[in-house]
Design goal:
Chain A: It comes from Actinoplanes lutulentus. Chain A: One of its GO terms (molecular function) is ATP binding. Chain A: Belongs to the ABC transporter superfamily. Ycf16 family. Chain A: InterPro entries: AAA+_ATPase (IPR003593), ABC_transporter-like_ATP-bd (IPR003439), FeS-cluster_ATPase_SufC (IPR010230), P-loop_NTPase (IPR027417). The complex is a heterodimer of chains A (about 250) and B (about 375). Chain A is of the alpha/beta class and about 250 residues long. Chain A has one domain: P-loop containing nucleotide triphosphate hydrolases (Rossmann fold). Chain A is about 35% helix and about 30% strand. Chain A contains 8 helices and 12 strands. Chain A starts with a strand and ends with a helix. The model of chain A has no long low-confidence stretch (mean pLDDT about 95). Chain B has about 375 residues and is mainly beta. Chain B contains 4 helices and 19 strands. Chain B has a 10-stranded mixed beta sheet with strand order 1-18-16-14-12-10-8-6-4-3. In chain B, strands 2-5-7-9-11-13-15-17-19 form a 9-stranded mixed beta sheet, covered by helices on one side. Chain B is globular and about 60 Å long. The two termini of chain B are about 20 Å apart. The N terminus of chain B is likely disordered. Classes of the chains: A alpha/beta (about 250), B mainly beta (about 375).
């Protein structure tokens, strides 16, 4: 069973002039396989910084603290090594890769993660099955990665990767943004299928409580000013639904 | 990155044209048409008034039915040289290689002809491609080996004919080529030219198009990849003089390594008689490393207001770190991710090649160059 441990994590964003602007001011969080943690907070509170710095985006610099996955210091790993170690980031704004088909991309990613090419005989079926489950048209496989995708298609494509790559820890960065209610349901069902295996730990980053009606978190953390200011169970999300972030903002 | 607009070349239709090299003043590098070209590296092609080296040998295996290759002492030229080097090629070429597709022929397979340079003194060559009326063919011209070459390729596409014409410059690293490709598009004919430039030290290819009648359609595509020290220059002049014709120009290049230099200059001229013209031209460059330079200059000169469409675009960008991050975040190692992105950048052009073996070979060659240049 895998564990992601975040200890006193401090992260700055690199500004174009080379200066560092501190965003995360000491974050402590432990995510175990089978658990779902919701990170909730207002815009600009540093939620996405947490997600991208764990994944290793070059725009962020870790200035203090640590992130370990099953005891391995994640900072020592390159972006691709982190993914192969079992980290997955479903992005809020998935990137277009012109000229690279979804089928080719997924096969290349699957090969990289598994360390061997998927068996030709079973792969086609696995891919088709993953697409069907997310109600994607088979023609989708031949389109270029994220190019011309609607908001819903982009997010379904991210969750399809989650299902195919079977990470140890999955960070979902505002997966609910840009989705209508039908797409939100389809995407949530995909996440719940992976949760049901009990082998993946989730860090679910969201601004709104809506997605939490479909994906029930075990823990809720309120993120304000680059750190966690309140923690609780699912009932905390319901409180936020009613009260909003006002109270935490004034306190911070 | 350099993108600049220059004054509309009102002289494009009136430039000096002559078959005699001595009618053209000696090049000094200040001429608008030559300002990007490192003349020194052109060697004898700059000053010579005749070239005597051996032209590349013409090699081919079985040709599909309907396609013949022969040599002729002379052929009525379609290209009236409009610069010194094309006049030099015309005057010095010992003969003309004639590739002919019979009228109404529809060869089942592509005709592959290789021009192989054997080194030695600067040489001249002429190639003439004649596609008969109502024919439909694919011709692939593979240029390899070592040369210092001035050459003209003249292409006549008959009425209602369809030609896919692929020219590959896979010269040795020391090769120098200044080439003119002239395409005459027949009435209702359709030509698709794909110009691939990977090799050579200096390769400068000037493609010009004219229309013999209404309804002609010319698609000019280019794919180039310059690595350290290479100069690759592509110029086009599409001269719309007939009504209701179409042109579509799309060139894409990647650059990698110190002093890799590419130049794209796309000129489209729509004359007053060419009403109903539909034209678009675009150049895109992907700069993979520091120290490379891509010049990109689209020019559109329009003398009639009654066009169906006329546009141009040019974009030169660096390798997108966000794409790299996205792919690497899915476990794909950096080298592999870069290959995917560059292959993807060229995919649209490579997919236009109707021969699967060649598509694969080009994809592999591009990947190999990416690695060879030490990314």
């Amino acid at each position: 069973m895998s564990t992601l441990e975040i200890r006193d994590l401090q992260v700055s964003v690199k500004l174009p002039e080379g200066e560092l602007k501190p965003i995360l001011a000491g974050v402590d969080l432990t995510v175990k396989a089978g658990e779902t943690h919701a990170i909730m907070g207002p815009n600009g509170s540093g939620k996405s910084t947490l997600a991208y710095s764990i994944a290793g985006h070059p725009k962020y610099e870790i200035t203090g603290g640590s992130v370990t996955l099953d005891g391995v210091d994640v900072h020592e790993l390159s972006v691709d090594e982190r993914a192969r170690a079992g980290l997955f980031l479903a992005m809020q704004y998935p990137v277009e890769v012109p000229g690279v088909s979804v089928a080719n991309f997924l096969r290349t990613a699957k090969t990289a993660i598994d360390g061997e090419a998927p068996k030709l005989r079973t792969w086609a079926g696995e891919l088709r099955g993953a697409m069907e489950k997310l109600q994607m048209d088979p023609a989708f496989a031949q389109r270029n990665v994220n190019e011309g995708f609607s908001g819903g298609e982009k997010k379904r494509h991210e969750i399809m990767q989650l299902e195919l790559l079977k990470p140890k820890i999955a960070i979902l960065d505002e997966t609910d943004s840009g989705l209508d209610i039908d797409a939100l349901r389809i995407v949530s069902e995909g996440v719940n299928r992976v949760r049901a295996t009990g082998e993946t730990g989730f860090l679910l980053i969201t601004h709104y409580t809506r997605i939490l009606r479909y994906i029930k978190p075990d823990f809720v953390h309120v993120f304000v000013g680059g750190k966690i200011v309140e923690e609780g169970g699912p009932e905390l999300a319901e409180r936020l639904e009613v009260e909003g972030y006002e109270k935490f903002l004034t306190r911070a | 990155m350099t993108t600049e607009a220059i004054a509309p070349p009102s002289t494009k239709s009136q430039v000096l044209r002559s078959f005699d090299v001595t009618d053209f003043p000696a090049l000094n590098g200040l001429e608008e048409e030559w300002r990007f070209t490192p003349l020194k590296r052109l060697g004898d092609l700059v000053k010579a008034t005749s070239l005597t080296g051996a032209a590349p040998s013409v090699e081919f295996g079985d040709l599909p039915d309907g396609v013949t290759v022969s040599t002729a002492d002379d052929v009525d030229p379609v290209l009236t040289p409009f610069d010194r080097v094309s006049a030099l090629a015309y005057g010095s070429a010992a003969g003309v290689t004639v590739i002919e597709v019979a009228a109404e022929a529809e060869p089942a397979e592509a005709a592959v002809i290789r021009l192989v340079g054997k080194g030695g003194d600067a040489a001249a060559a002429r190639t003439f491609v004649k596609v008969g009326n109502f024919a439909k063919a694919t011709i692939i011209l593979e240029q390899s080996g070592s040369v210092t070459l001035a050459d003209n390729i003249e292409v006549v596409v008959g009425d209602s004919a369809q030609l896919t014409f692929i020219t590959l410059a896979e010269w040795d690293r020391d090769a120098v080529q200044a080439q003119h490709v002239k395409i005459r598009v027949g009435k209702d004919a359709h030509v698709q030219h794909l110009q691939v430039t990977l090799g050579g030290d200096l390769v400068r290819q000037f493609t010009s198009v004219e229309y013999a009648g209404r309804g002609g359609d010319a698609e000019l595509f280019g794919l180039y990849f310059a690595t350290a020290g290479q100069h690759q220059e592509h110029r086009q002049l599409v001269d719309h003089s007939a009504p209701d014709c179409r042109s579509n120009v799309g060139y894409r290049g990647a650059l990698q390594g110190a002093s890799a230099h590419t130049v794209w200059v796309g000129d489209v001229l729509i004359r007053a008689t060419a009403t109903g013209t539909d034209t678009y031209e675009i150049n895109r460059n992907l700069i993979l490393t520091d120290g490379a330079r891509a010049d990109s200059v689209p020019n559109l000169e329009i003398e009639t207001g009654e066009v169906a469409g006329a546009g141009h675009a040019s974009a030169t960008g660096r390798f997108d770190d966000e794409q790299l991050f996205y792919l690497m975040a899915r476990g794909i190692p950096e080298g592999e991710a870069r290959k995917l992105v560059v292959r993807g950048f060229f995919a649209e052009l490579i997919n236009k090649i109707p021969v699967e073996g060649l598509r694969e070979r080009l994809g592999d060659t591009i990947e190999a160059r990416l690695v060879e240049a030490g990314s």
